[in-house]
Amino acid sequence: MREPLKADMFDELCPSPLTPIRVGDKWAGMIIRCLEDGPRRFSELRVPLRGITPKSLTHSLRTLEQSGFVSRQERSRSVEYALTPLGRSLLEPLNAACAWAEEHWDELVDAHEAAYQASRRTPTP
Question: Where does the record place the HTH hxlR-type domain (predicted)?
Protein backbone atom coordinates (compact mmCIF):
# COMPACT_ATOMS: atom_id res chain seq x y z
CA MET A 1 0.00 0.00 0.00
CA ARG A 2 1.38 3.41 -0.91
CA GLU A 3 1.68 6.34 1.47
CA PRO A 4 -1.23 8.82 1.45
CA LEU A 5 -0.59 12.22 -0.07
CA LYS A 6 0.23 14.90 2.48
CA ALA A 7 -2.18 17.81 2.84
CA ASP A 8 0.76 20.21 3.08
CA MET A 9 2.53 18.81 0.02
CA PHE A 10 2.40 22.23 -1.65
CA ASP A 11 3.10 25.68 -0.31
CA GLU A 12 -0.02 27.78 0.35
CA LEU A 13 1.09 30.19 -2.38
CA CYS A 14 0.99 27.45 -5.01
CA PRO A 15 -0.44 27.64 -7.51
CA SER A 16 0.14 31.31 -7.81
CA PRO A 17 0.80 33.87 -10.49
CA LEU A 18 4.43 33.57 -9.41
CA THR A 19 4.82 30.15 -11.00
CA PRO A 20 7.03 31.06 -13.97
CA ILE A 21 6.82 27.77 -15.85
CA ARG A 22 3.62 25.85 -16.43
CA VAL A 23 2.73 22.61 -18.12
CA GLY A 24 -0.87 22.87 -19.21
CA ASP A 25 -2.96 24.82 -16.74
CA LYS A 26 -1.94 26.14 -13.34
CA TRP A 27 -2.73 22.82 -11.62
CA ALA A 28 -1.08 20.42 -14.08
CA GLY A 29 2.42 20.49 -12.60
CA MET A 30 1.10 19.79 -9.13
CA ILE A 31 -1.13 16.96 -10.39
CA ILE A 32 1.90 15.42 -12.08
CA ARG A 33 3.79 15.70 -8.78
CA CYS A 34 0.93 13.98 -6.94
CA LEU A 35 1.09 11.07 -9.39
CA GLU A 36 4.88 10.74 -9.16
CA ASP A 37 4.78 7.80 -6.72
CA GLY A 38 1.99 5.89 -8.42
CA PRO A 39 -1.69 5.93 -9.34
CA ARG A 40 -4.13 7.97 -7.26
CA ARG A 41 -7.88 8.30 -6.96
CA PHE A 42 -9.61 11.63 -7.50
CA SER A 43 -10.32 11.99 -3.77
CA GLU A 44 -6.65 11.39 -2.94
CA LEU A 45 -5.59 14.17 -5.31
CA ARG A 46 -7.92 16.62 -3.59
CA VAL A 47 -5.99 16.34 -0.28
CA PRO A 48 -2.86 18.28 -1.28
CA LEU A 49 -4.74 20.22 -3.97
CA ARG A 50 -7.24 21.61 -1.48
CA GLY A 51 -7.63 24.89 -3.38
CA ILE A 52 -8.91 23.27 -6.56
CA THR A 53 -12.59 22.78 -7.27
CA PRO A 54 -13.79 19.33 -8.36
CA LYS A 55 -14.72 20.83 -11.74
CA SER A 56 -11.22 22.28 -12.27
CA LEU A 57 -9.55 19.05 -11.16
CA THR A 58 -11.69 17.08 -13.60
CA HIS A 59 -10.85 19.53 -16.39
CA SER A 60 -7.11 19.40 -15.61
CA LEU A 61 -7.07 15.60 -15.48
CA ARG A 62 -8.92 15.38 -18.82
CA THR A 63 -6.51 17.85 -20.42
CA LEU A 64 -3.51 15.91 -19.10
CA GLU A 65 -5.06 12.70 -20.37
CA GLN A 66 -5.72 14.20 -23.82
CA SER A 67 -2.10 15.43 -23.92
CA GLY A 68 -0.83 11.94 -23.16
CA PHE A 69 0.64 12.75 -19.75
CA VAL A 70 -1.90 10.91 -17.58
CA SER A 71 -3.90 7.71 -18.03
CA ARG A 72 -7.29 7.02 -16.52
CA GLN A 73 -7.69 3.47 -15.23
CA GLU A 74 -11.06 2.10 -14.19
CA ARG A 75 -10.89 -0.28 -11.27
CA SER A 76 -13.69 -2.43 -9.84
CA ARG A 77 -15.31 0.43 -7.90
CA SER A 78 -13.12 3.41 -8.59
CA VAL A 79 -11.03 5.27 -11.11
CA GLU A 80 -7.32 5.89 -10.72
CA TYR A 81 -5.08 8.31 -12.55
CA ALA A 82 -1.45 7.52 -13.31
CA LEU A 83 1.44 9.07 -15.16
CA THR A 84 2.18 7.69 -18.59
CA PRO A 85 5.81 7.33 -19.70
CA LEU A 86 5.43 10.73 -21.40
CA GLY A 87 4.10 12.24 -18.15
CA ARG A 88 6.93 10.65 -16.19
CA SER A 89 9.41 12.28 -18.60
CA LEU A 90 8.20 15.67 -17.29
CA LEU A 91 9.41 15.00 -13.75
CA GLU A 92 13.04 15.97 -14.42
CA PRO A 93 12.16 19.29 -16.13
CA LEU A 94 9.67 20.02 -13.32
CA ASN A 95 12.41 19.39 -10.75
CA ALA A 96 14.67 21.84 -12.58
CA ALA A 97 11.90 24.46 -12.80
CA CYS A 98 11.11 24.07 -9.08
CA ALA A 99 14.79 24.46 -8.15
CA TRP A 100 15.02 27.59 -10.31
CA ALA A 101 11.85 29.09 -8.80
CA GLU A 102 13.08 28.37 -5.27
CA GLU A 103 16.40 30.05 -6.04
CA HIS A 104 14.67 33.14 -7.47
CA TRP A 105 11.61 33.20 -5.21
CA ASP A 106 12.31 36.60 -3.64
CA GLU A 107 12.82 38.19 -7.06
CA LEU A 108 9.58 36.66 -8.34
CA VAL A 109 7.65 37.94 -5.31
CA ASP A 110 9.17 41.43 -5.67
CA ALA A 111 8.37 41.60 -9.40
CA HIS A 112 4.81 40.40 -8.84
CA GLU A 113 4.26 42.90 -6.04
CA ALA A 114 5.70 45.76 -8.13
CA ALA A 115 3.43 44.90 -11.06
CA TYR A 116 0.43 44.71 -8.73
CA GLN A 117 1.22 48.09 -7.16
CA ALA A 118 1.75 49.66 -10.60
CA SER A 119 -1.62 48.37 -11.79
CA ARG A 120 -3.31 49.99 -8.77
CA ARG A 121 -1.73 53.37 -9.55
CA THR A 122 -2.98 53.44 -13.13
CA PRO A 123 -4.98 56.68 -13.52
CA THR A 124 -8.63 56.40 -14.42
CA PRO A 125 -9.89 58.52 -17.34
Answer: 14-109
Could you report the per-residue pLDDT of 76-109, keeping only the tens digit for each? 889 999 999 999 999 998 888 888 888 888 998 8
Confidence (pTM): 0.76
Strand order of the β-sheet with 70-74 is 40-41, 79-83, 70-74
Q: How far is it, in rounded angstroms, from Cα 89 to Cα 82?
A: 13
State how far the Cα of 17 lies from the Cα of 14, in Å rounded to an integer.
8
- State how far the Cα of 102 lies from the Cα of 34, in Å rounded to an integer: 19
Nearest to 82 by CA among 67, 65, 70: 70
Candidates 1.10.760.10, 1.10.630.10, 1.10.10.10, 3.10.20.30; correct CATH number of 28-120? 1.10.10.10
Question: How far is Cα 49 from Cα 30, in angstroms, rounded to an integer?
Answer: 8
